[in-house]
Amino acid sequence: LWGVLAREASGRPSLIDGEVEVMMVPNVAIKNSANKSVQEDGELTLTNFRLLWINDSTKAAFAFVLKQIISFTAAGGRLPGIASPKVFINGRSLTQTTESSFYLSFRDGNRDELFEQLKQQMANKDWEKKTLKTTNVASTAVRSEFTTTRAGISGVLRTIDQQKTDTETSLQLAFADMNALIAKAADMVKLAERLANHRKQSTETLTSEQQTQIDDVMLNVGIASPVTKSLAGSSYPKQLSKQLADFLHPLIKRHQGIILLSEVYCYFNRARGIELVSPDDMLQACEMFETLSLGLTKRVFPSGVIVIQSNDHSDLVASDRLAKLAQSLTCINEMDCVNHLKIPVILAKQQLLIAESLGYLCRDDTVEGLQFYPNLFNEWTSI
Questions:
Q1: What band does 137 get if pLDDT is binned at 50, 70 and 90?
Q2: Nearest to 351 by CA among 375, 382, 323, 381
Q3: Neighbours of 14 (CB within 10 A)
Q4: Taking the C-alpha atoms of 30, 32, 36 and 37 in order, what is their torsion angle to the nearest 10 degrees?
């Protein structure tokens, strides 16, 4: 009944189109009722479509589709010291008619809370709503077949007018009330996720400009299932750190491998919508990057400026880039770096000082301000 679960680079589960995380419970074991096989000490995540189970130690990851459930009951754990609380699930494979069963053992509690959420998701049946919506879209596409009224210049203009009318209608519906607005926003987030999946699968065929456009859409639309304290519980810092890392990797590539923490805070909270992250939680999540081996590092410069940089970032490469810029312009300052390298003023100053300390640049501090020149002393000493 359980299938292999695809995962993001950070180790978080890859969610399918329209899927939203509902609750996370740590230290849950899965036991097959037939062969008594056991998967121990994993983190269980309930979504509106599936049950997801991940063990970071063994790298095991499995998914169970809620549509397969025939019946489920809660048992055990009523008295202290007597059997850990469990949820027994009887299900049927989507491709077979035979039934099978297993149970989830909750070593650290939270069984009752997850059981209630599971009942709610089984009552909602979001997977049926997704199927119905797909069917409606397909039927609409059939109705909009080619006709003679859509041919020629007049047909193109008529189509544009119709699209404009449809857009205005959608905007009116979206702003009619908050529920409609949220529904429209959810559709846009799903669109961004499909674009992201397309980007992953078509990295060789997409141009750099197309990849940049897709990244811009993803940044502007947001995150479909933001990690929250109520969702993740005690594992909130860890899950937030992983989600932040997945969010930052495509962004940090566009910033030459390094980005200010203040910018990260703004980008991430904009993507999360109303589920804002506090500065303390953001800082704690960034400090866990190295511990969780997420390919990112929090760095503090001597001036106190805090940045997030990828593990591939090199001060030597950045300094060499500044030295070449100084050679082409004779001398450079912070504003030259901003204009030519598209980096913030604060970060530009830090990188200039690093390049100076590594011997790539020399400073000239005058009444006109601080300027940096290519370091020619290394060439002279080698003669």
A1: very low
A2: 323
A3: 17
A4: -60
